[in-house]
Design goal:
InterPro entries: MFS, MFS_Cyanate_Porter, MFS_dom, MFS_trans_sf. This protein has 19 helices and no strands. With about 400 residues, it is mainly α. The protein is globular.
């Protein structure tokens, strides 16, 4: 009897891990598929550079506003049904935005897809904390690897797909298929409201807003998000403006995501084993300073080196997800801490891509925007140092 229960528990954990991986693959497709064909989107929809900057800020706005609502919704219906609903929104948004006749509709339908991602973003750490309490770092690393693989695939394949279909719209719409594949496991899990749903709905709320560690995580999340979405939104264009081809710019951009596959896995596993993650956070910030400084000097001088350095600093994302799961004592606290850190963090990040686009328009170049990014690495380093200290809520 005991052996049968253990086998059922093992199978359940494997099923949950597969569901986590499938969901994570989708968490950046809607974003990274846009950058490589941004020029074609702007031409097709008659989109100005300022509106394009707004497009790069839509993800952080949706992740902030919708993410803050996730714990309240999860308390009412459970975590897994909300994740399933998020994947439905993502599928609808990805499938329909390719039909948008103008910039406004494209932005609106992108927001629908991104709202779905926001719900999944916030709640996945609680699933990890509940189902894999002794393997938080390793499992977080696995699903962030899947996230990076999805992001890399979308970044590298959108241009070839668009060329193959002869239309950037079809090149974007095809990514809805990945969301369709991820949905069935979560629909099955939503029918069986297990431990995670019970803990999220029954545990008394924790006032994370009063916790200094929560604010440190929020600021760190905001700074790394600013960097990540500037890279996602503008790095291919920076390379193209420096004279590199669209295909090479897409591959270089994909490199920044591809590096997150081995690095994210190893970094998360390491972060889960050590008591303090402060040194890791500081080190990543120094790589960011080097990468943005290189782009500032000359993007075409050593494009692969700059892409590698920025790929390293992008692993701040799996690091902060691991820290969020480690800093909460139970799944309910992790949900609230995740919502606070991601919600407030994304609010902090909203102005970043818009400011970069506006500075580019005002100065007709990338010197000033990239100088700003070098400076923003400093508060990221400071916040990461305090967020990484051995504390729990």
């Amino acid at each position: 009897m005991l052996e049968e229960q253990l086998n059922q528990s093992r199978r359940g954990r494997v099923f949950t891990l597969v569901a986590l991986v499938l969901a994570a693959v989708n968490l950046r497709l809607a974003v990274t598929s846009v950058g490589p064909v941004l020029t074609e989107i702007r031409d097709g929809l008659h989109m100005s550079a300022t509106v394009a900057g707004l497009l790069t800020s839509v993800p952080v706005f949706c992740f902030a506003t919708v993410g803050l609502l996730a714990p309240r919704i999860a308390r009412r219906v459970g975590a897994t049904p909300v994740i399933a609903g998020g994947l439905v929104l993502l599928t609808v948004g990805l499938a329909t935005r390719a039909l948008a006749p103008n910039s406004a509709v494209f932005l609106l339908l992108s927001a629908v897809a991104l709202a779905g991602i926001a719900l999944v973003n916030v709640l996945l750490p609680s699933i990890v904390k509940d189902r894999f309490p002794t393997q938080v770092g390793t499992v977080t690393g696995i699903y962030t690897v899947a996230l990076n693989l999805g992001a890399t695939t979308a970044a590298a394949a959108t241009v070839p797909l668009s060329d193959g279909f002869g239309d950037w719209r079809l090149g974007l719409a095809c990514w809805a298929l990945a969301a369709v594949v991820a949905l069935p496991p979560w629909l099955l899990m939503a029918r069986d409201r297990g431990e995670t749903n019970a803990q999220v709905t029954s545990t008394p709320p924790v006032r994370v807003i009063r916790q200094p560690i929560a604010w440190a995580l929020a600021v760190y999340f905001g700074m790394q998000s600013t960097s990540a979405y500037v890279i996602i939104g503008w790095l291919p264009q920076i390379y193209r403006d420096a004279g590199l081809s669209a295909e090479l710019a897409g591959v270089l951009f994909a490199t920044t995501s591809l590096l997150g596959v081995p690095l994210g896995m190893g970094l998360s596993a390491l972060a889960g084993r050590v008591r303090s993650q402060s040194g890791i956070a500081v080190g990543l910030g120094l790589f960011g300073i080097a990468g943005y400084s290189g782009l500032w000097v000359d993007p075409a001088a050593a494009p692969w080196l700059w892409a590698i350095l920025l790929g390293i600093v992008n692993t701040a994302f799996p690091l902060v997800l691991t820290m969020i799961a480690l800093r909460g004592r139970n799944p309910s606290t992790v949900v609230r801490l995740s919502a606070f850190a991601q919600g407030v963090g994304y609010l902090i990040a909203i102005p970043g891509p818009i400011l970069i686009g506006a500075l580019h328009d005002a100065t007709d170049g990338w010197k000033a925007p990239l100088a700003i990014m070098v400076v923003l690495m400093v508060p990221q380093i400071i916040a990461g140092f305090f967020a990484g200290r051995d504390r729990q809520i």
